[in-house]
Amino acid sequence: MSITKMKLVSISTDESNYEEMLKRCETSKYLHAENATSIVNEDNAGRVLSVENVYSDYVNTLKNIGHSIGFEMKSKPTIDKTYTNEEIEAFLKNVEEQFKVVSDSVESNSLTSDDEIALETLRVLDFTSMHDCQYISFGMGRLPIESVKKLNLIQDTKFITAKLHQTSQYQWIVYATSNTHVREAKKMFDGLYLEEIKIPTVDSKKIIAQYEEELTNVYTYCEERNRLYSLHQYVAIFENHYVVTGFVPTSDVDKFKAEFNGVDVKVEPHNPDDAPQLTPPTLLKNNWFFRPFEMFVTMYSLPAYRDIDPTVFVGLTYCLLFGIMFGDLGQGFLLVLAGLFLEKKSRNKLAGIVGRVGLTSMFFGFMYGSVFGNEEILIPVHQGLFNVHEKLINVMDGNFTMTLLITAVVIGAVLILTTMLINMYVQIKRKKWGELLFSQNGVAGFVFYGFILVAVGMTMINPGLNMLTPAWLIPFIGVPIVLFFFKEPLTHLMEGKSIKPHGGWGNFCLETFFEVFEILLSFVTNSMSYLRVGGFVLSHAGMMLVVMTLVEMTGNAGPVVFVIGNLFVMALEGLIVGIQTLRLEYYEMFSRYFEGGGKKFILISSDN
């Protein structure tokens, strides 16, 4: 439930072993490699390994050849042969000449799968031999089934036909006739609506078969060399040492070293602070329950390496708010089953989130006494457990509405204060003392907002207590507002900079006045934003009330209406509540403590 700690590693060897070192790096399960240009500078007298990669062109040429003749290029697991550049270029020139005939003679893109089957049957006659005949002409095509019946009635010794393939709509035939009668035969077949298919001049499959093994071998070799050359961007050269630098999870350093056993390669771990020009990548580490919520965090922005991972807080608050707004024991149970099933089957993080919010939906559904919209079935249970007259929380009770809305605002206020505390912790880690002390999300904002909440709460509890006196207002309201106003110059003062604003004090005061006004207004709007939590509780209960009313009105069709109504509410209300909860996470919470801007941890094997 944190950001994985990283070690900076340098992997070095000499010129004779650097390719083997790169092969081990490429298959590593632990290495995030850094581009060599980030390592090399004038001070260390290093240089980047720069070798022209001709293999990329070879690979593209081979793919184009394969595409033109309908042959899919695939690499073998291992290389059977090695080739010089001259051998590869001579081979490519040869196959391009050979396959130009194939690609010109085969219109594979215009042939259907049934056409291919017919050609396969015709192949036994040898396409080349058919074209070389001096006195006999051949033709093939597909006839409509209705025309086949007419063809069978024609008795003509000037041509013969043979069936190649048939479907419910067409029959593919080949016909042979003498050169003397070829025009007459073509005219007759045109009258039968024969759709002519050109007979290839060469048998492409035979030619492809001749070159298939060598094509695969050359492609495998070129693809492997191309991948290896693409890794050169990570290699820096210092004197005679070839060095790859990157980051490895601290817990996996020993496993990473073991990947180079048997090779003359030196692996040295370092503290990330030893290379301040490099930003360590972020790899989130959370347990099974919270891992799916990483999706929401990364959608906003990946946290920086030295910041905090908000995934656990996001998971807890998202489940809490969703459960409150979508409280139904039965529907929550279905969300759990569907979400966990889809997560296991497809590894979908969104499905995992659905399964987890279903748990809190079940909990609050039990507290509301709601099961698939039925508000009465749990009354005996509540009476026995909580010793209440009907239910512990009756959402549909009109007298409960104001309590619900006030509770929603209180929950929002608690979450706002919590995010302020998180922000203060983050600013301490970043050593940004001005943001910690003077910002609306720092100490000043916490004191200001916290006092307002305490004052309102105490007034409601004890109306005779007056906290709106100068003794309270000056230190808890006046001082924070002054700190908001002079945050920038005070921060500069703490950092030893000039406190005079760049645009002069006049412009500063005018701009800051409106900024402070916006800050004060945002405290109100942010708090009121949580009213939607109570609103959606009422909305969900209202929609289910409509469903249950329709069930009663439809008589025998009631069970069908009950099922369809519940599914409809789950889909519509669940989607809306999910979006609104995410909005609260992003706009009311993330904006107070989370900056993001982290660099994703990418294995060199997947990056390549």
Description of the molecule:
57% of the residues lie in helices and 10% in strands. By secondary structure, the chain is of the alpha+beta class. The protein has four domains: 9-51 and 230-272, no CATH class; 55-104 and 209-224, no CATH class; 108-199, 2-Layer Sandwich (Alpha-Beta Plaits); 291-593, no CATH class. Helix 21 runs antiparallel to helix 22 (558-593). The protein has helices at residues 18-26, 55-69, 85-105, 113-122, 127-132, 145-153, 182-191, 204-230, 253-258, 294-300, 311-325, 329-346, 349-368, 379-386, 401-430, 433-438, 443-461, 470-485, 487-494, 505-529, 531-553, 558-593, 604-607, and strands at residues 2-3, 6-13, 32-33, 47-48, 136-144, 159-166, 170-178, 195-197, 235-238, 241-249, 266-270, 284-285. Strands 2, 3, 4, 9, 10 and 11 form a six-stranded antiparallel beta sheet that branches. It contains 23 helices and twelve strands. A hairpin with a 2-residue loop joins strand 9 and strand 10.
CA distance, first residue to last residue = 29 Å
**Strand content of the residues, in percent?**
5-15%
Q: Provide the gyration radius in Å.
A: 37 Å
List how many beta strands DSSP finds.
Answer: 12
What overall geometry do the principal axes of the alpha carbons give? flat
Largest sheet: 6 strands, antiparallel
Helix count, per DSSP? 23
Structure class: alpha+beta
- Spans of at least 5 consecutive residues with low confidence: none
Q: What share of residues is helical?
A: 55-70%
Q: What is the arithmetic mean of pLDDT?
A: 89
How many structural domains does the protein architecture include?
A: 4
